[in-house]
Amino acid sequence: MLEENISLSQLMTLVINFLLGSAIIIGVGKGAEQDAWMAMIISTVLGLAIMYFYYFLISRLPGKNLYEIMEHCFKRYLVIPVAFLYIIYFLYISSRVVRDFGELIASAILPNTPIEMISFTIAMTMGYILYLGIEVLGRTSEIFSPYVVLFVLLLTIFLLASGNLEFSRIEPVLGEGIIPVAKAVFPSLFVFPFGELIAFTVIMGKVTRFKYVKRVSLMGTAIAGLLLTHATVLMVMTLGSDAMVRSNFPMLSAARQVSIGNFIERIDALVVFIMMLGILIKGSVFLFGALKGLEYIFRLPYRYFALPMSAVVSLFSVLISVNFADHLKEGLVIVPYFVHMPMQFGIPSVLLAVLLWKKRSRKRFGKNGVKC
């Protein structure tokens, strides 16, 4: 198979844009209402632990991805069914990500455009990028990431200048106690977006200078967490907790409040750009995870599957839910317990336990099976 590598800076920007992804579209921590920012801070700390967990798993066998680690732990005939589960999982989450963006564009930007066409366009773009290679995805993320930070800064300045930010809207702090914050953190924020970093177990092995991967991946997670916390504060201070909870796209609703001298108004384009880049990166990373699984099973270069699987993602994104309300309920209520938890933490925990047991056995008995 063709060897590909991405740089440390590309890994960092991929992590940042991946975590922003759909989280910045639908908002995070809504269950905590005005304390959503606090839930986001706690989740960021947990997110750092989650990222370290995935790094620790991959670092046991540097250079190998999730599927190769599974084969190291178990026989291939046992691994293939589990690999198929991960392929379906990655394709399913990629489809959900595409659906998030399709709903945003269809309902808020281009209401007369069929969601099928929007989903097909973004999915095939993802497929074409991955057909060109993971390096192209890394460069795309690296090139456009500075604009994300710039646009978030501009949005903050515009909201301040237009007088829409009211500090009183984040009060009272813990007015309903710690329970709503805890419920917002687990399982919702625990598995979305941070638990979804499981997709990077397929990418980390391709990073140059692997010894710095831990530092860079944790830094990317921390930066993304801070950006999401900042975005959450902006949404609460602009809309208030009630309006934020009711809004399907609170970040976009907040941006539409900007009005400076009847000249600078409705800066939707800035927010849509941030969301579009995040969706492109996140959907592509999940799709790449599925493609590498197909490469492992069929022993063919993953590029062969890029465009067909992107078409599958496009189709799934339309069929998974009948409407946006059903889509959100499925993703925030059902999926965390029955899909995310076993795929993000259950199977990886078993793999790590087997790896550590094998390492301990080798140390105890030596290479020739003789007890030391």
TrEMBL record:
Keyword Membrane assigned: yes
Pfam families found in the cross-reference section: Spore_permease
Gene3D superfamilies: Amino acid/polyamine transporter I
Keyword list, A-Z: Germination, Membrane, Transmembrane, Transmembrane helix, Transport
Annotated membrane topology: Multi-pass membrane protein
Gene Ontology BP terms: spore germination
GO annotation, cellular component aspect: membrane
Protein's cellular compartments: Membrane
TM stretches of this protein: 12-30, 36-57, 77-95, 115-134, 146-165, 185-204, 216-239, 269-291, 303-325, 337-357
Family under the similarity heading: Belongs to the amino acid-polyamine-organocation (APC) superfamily. Spore germination protein (SGP) (TC 2.A.3.9) family.
Protein name: GerAB/ArcD/ProY family transporter
